[in-house]
């Protein structure tokens, strides 16, 4: 059976480096399931792999969209599975990497048979969002499904709208709706998670934000001001800087908010991954060697060797 090796872990933990090293070892290609890195205009703020990193292994679903494009998780599932099946025609192993939990789930388990978006519900939620702010939308979801609320990207209105819409339509929590696997895959999935102490994760996140700023994050965000209302830009690293540009926050405060919200997202990732029982954990300081040892024990060999 063909093998999909899925690299998971919190933001800033070193998933890109491990994915590239494994892709080189197995002479294969990488499928990204990081939903923020789909958008080509957001290179710095999403820590998109650098030109040098992209040159080391072929990547798919990196910078393939514009922020103006509509793109759903359902579209990603279909396109990612098609690409993985194509890659399996010439490779025994394919690497997948990314910290977008629901996008990884869509590929390895399939999406549940959820109803299409209800236009009336969407308009109602848009109105609440525009008139009362994202906090009111967050409160609705927290009351309807506190379990999913603990792990959802609370700063992403599209995720909030979708979950609330499904709950309203089905009269079941979103957690109940997504709990059953519907699509069996014709490949084996091996999940490798990179672990580190929480204080280390937070230190790496803080440093990563500093590096983004050194690399030009402020100018990148300023170039996207005209698109600030688009869903793609309602995300950490950009929404905070827009408030700085508006004169609402100082730059120092905006930067601290980026760091804080990035740490909050990492905490949600940890909550999600703790519930998963099929992840092989490796230490962040030795992730490549531990992963290769693990895969060797599972009798997964490089076609080069």
Supply database-style keywords.
Dimethylallyltransferase; IPT; Histone, subunit A; 2 domains; 305 residues; globular; tRNA dimethylallyltransferase activity; ATP-binding; Rossmann fold; alpha/beta; 14 helices
Report on the structure:
Catalyzes the transfer of a dimethylallyl group onto the adenine at position 37 in tRNAs that read codons beginning with uridine, leading to the formation of N6-(dimethylallyl)adenosine (i(6)A). One of its GO terms (molecular function) is tRNA dimethylallyltransferase activity. Its EC number is 2.5.1.75. The protein has helices at about 15-25, 50-55, 75-90, 100-110, 120-130, 135-145, 145-150, 155-170, 175, 200-215, 215-220, 240-245, 250-275, 285-295, and strands at about 5-10, 30, 60, 95, 190-195, 280-285. It is α/β, with parallel strands linked by helices. It has 2 domains: about 5-110 and about 180-295, P-loop containing nucleotide triphosphate hydrolases (Rossmann fold, 3-Layer(aba) Sandwich), CATH 3.40.50; about 120-175, Histone, subunit A (Orthogonal Bundle). It has a 6-stranded parallel sheet, sandwiched between helices. Strand 2 (about 30), helix 2 (about 50-55) and strand 3 (about 60) form a beta-alpha-beta unit. Helix 3 crosses helix 4 (about 100-110). It is globular and about 55 Å long. The model has no long low-confidence stretch (mean pLDDT about 95).
């Amino acid at each position: 059976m063909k093998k999909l090796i899925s690299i998971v872990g919190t933001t800033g933990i070193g998933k890109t480096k491990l994915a590239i090293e494994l892709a080189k070892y197995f002479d294969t290609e990488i499928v990204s399931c990081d939903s923020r890195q789909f958008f080509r205009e957001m290179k710095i703020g999403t820590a998109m792999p650098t030109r040098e990193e992209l040159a080391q292994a072929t990547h798919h679903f990196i910078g393939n969209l514009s922020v103006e494009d509509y793109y759903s998780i359902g579209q990603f599932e279909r396109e990612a599975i098609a690409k993985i099946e194509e890659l399996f025609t010439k490779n025994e192993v394919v690497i997948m990497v990314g910290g977008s939990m629901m996008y990884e789930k869509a590929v390895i388990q399939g999406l549940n048979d959820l109803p299409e978006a209800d236009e009336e519900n969407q308009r109602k939620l848009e109105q609440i969002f525009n008139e009362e702010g994202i906090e009111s939308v967050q409160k609705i979801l927290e009351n309807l499904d506190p379990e999913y609320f603990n792990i959802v990207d609370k700063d992403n209105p599209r995720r909030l709208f979708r979950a609330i819409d499904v709950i309203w339509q089905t009269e079941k929590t979103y957690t109940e709706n997504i709990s059953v696997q519907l699509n069996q895959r014709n490949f084996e999935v091996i999940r490798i998670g990179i672990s580190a102490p929480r204080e280390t994760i937070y230190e790496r996140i803080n440093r990563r934000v500093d590096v983004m700023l050194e690399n030009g994050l402020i100018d990148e965000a300023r170039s996207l001001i005209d698109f600030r209302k688009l869903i793609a830009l309602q995300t950490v690293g950009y929404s905070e800087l827009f408030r700085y540009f508006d004169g609402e926050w100082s730059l120092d405060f905006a930067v601290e908010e980026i760091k804080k919200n990035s740490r909050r997202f990492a905490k949600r990732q940890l909550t999600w991954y703790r519930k998963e029982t099929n992840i092989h954990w490796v230490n962040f300081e030795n992730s490549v060697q531990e992963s290769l040892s693990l895969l060797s024990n599972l009798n997964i060999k490089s076609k080069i060797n």
